[in-house]
Amino acid sequence: KVDWIVLAGFMRILKGDFLKAFPNRVINIHPSLLPSFPGLEAWKQALEYGVKYTGCTVHFVDQGIDTGAIILQETVPVMDDDTPQRLHARIQDAEHHL
Q1: Which helix (DSSP H) or strand (DSSP E) does residue 95 occupy?
Q2: Active site residue 30
């Protein structure tokens, strides 16, 4: 019996049959404060948009891209001199706390 499926750094979209086999048991960690910046390279999206805060989100996986119900979030400040690499590293540190 599978209790939970946890995705971290998993870059593929799971299809309906898989999700139907494990209803409400697949969770993902995403490098933004969803619903802002879903999809790939969310830390770059945050820098391009010019937000002062971003972060990471643990959420249930559904049929959409990063659209499932949010379980937990942690905020990460965006610094004026941030590069994509530095911001991504700080977000990953926050993910490890969640």
Answers
A1: helix 84-97
A2: yes
Fold of 5-97: Rossmann fold (3.40.50)
Is the pTM above the cut of 0.85? yes
**pLDDT single digits (tens) 62-81:** 999 999 999 999 999 999 99
User: Which one-letter amino acid corresponds to residue 83?
Assistant: T
Q: Tell me if 30 sits within 8 A of 6, measured CB to CB.
A: no
**Element housing 7 (H / E):** strand 5-8
DSSP track, 12-75: SPPPHHHHHHSTT-EEEEESS-TTSS-SS-HHHHHHHHT-SEEEEEEEE--SSSS-SPEEEEEE
What pLDDT does 12 receive? 87
Q: Which of 30, 59, 88, 96 is catalytic?
A: 30
Of 60, 57, 91, nearest to 72 by C-alpha is 57
